[in-house]
């Protein structure tokens, strides 16, 4: 979106050289391109990389971010382009704000999304405050999402490239944060364009693979991390049907997720069975037929509303996304409190899991209205 007359590309009424931008650099190609591009435009760029977990253990780990080789890569980009770069040790904050809650939520039978909490509590809260302390006019990131100016101020919109869109992971961005943030890559049509820009700037990370899985979970093995963080978490228990009949023994509730079919160790019962509920207090995994996974009513808590107007008191027709990999679907949003709501899906969804995000969108449009966290059904 073109800035108004008299404003620079970041929306400020002054020269780029007089506009200080803190760029959150993970060491990947996206944030590296953002930093290089803004520096080439003449902005006063400061790169900041957060060390979020054990540096030594991460040195040889591929597909992560914010530790080890990634810190080195971010520093090399800053040296090549010629702007200052700082590394901040946020290990304790990351552990307290993200990892501990991840472990506790998993033990409680939820399926948490720690990347959202990291954006909410570390990058867009703590790091953003650091940017303000550095007298920055704004903070830029490599996220694929768009910030547009609307009649009521800054709005959050899905990325131009639906395959790269990260709006699901940024629903908890507040209006105050959105006023300060910038997302220079959100308008690009493909990741290929980002890599082309990296090559043009001569960045060593131009062909670096994207980060995979959760940064502190090696090889996507959640259970091994939980067992290390919470010894005794993998105690065995019973697999039961929806009537409470014992069908088998399991090796720990943490090894199962809602909607899971394979690996249950139950055979010879005719129709396939799926995990429909987890009962960690009684160490039980409840299984049932596929139709038992179908959900129409989704309770949502910790709602963040950035859709304009008052949240409470108004029933709305919206679209929602309850998985990052699926497109938004039509729903009715009914607020039940200042930060709680009931979402009615017009078409039922299978495998809705507590701990996942439910993100709100304007139906038939790209605007992100906010979202919340899916709560257990009573």
Quick summary of this structure?
This protein is 24% helix and 28% strand. The chain contains eight helices and 17 strands.
Describe the structure.
By secondary structure, the chain is of the alpha/beta class. The chain is 24% helix and 28% strand. It has eight helices and 17 strands. It has helices at 29-40, 55-58, 69-81, 91-107, 114-133, 175-180, 191-200, 222-229, and strands at residues 20-24, 44-51, 85-89, 138-140, 145-150, 153-158, 181-182, 237-240, 246-250, 274-279, 284-288, 294-305, 316-321, 329-337, 340-350, 357-361, 367-374. A six-stranded antiparallel beta barrel has the order 12-15-14-13-16-17. Strands 3-2-1-4-7 form a five-stranded parallel β-sheet, sandwiched between helices. The protein has a four-stranded mixed β-sheet with strand order 9-8-11-10, with no helix packed on it. Helix 1 packs across helix 7. The longest helix is centred in the first third of the chain and has 20 residues, at 114-133. The protein is globular. The protein starts with 19 loop residues before the first strand and ends with a strand. Mean pLDDT is 90; it is low at 55-64.
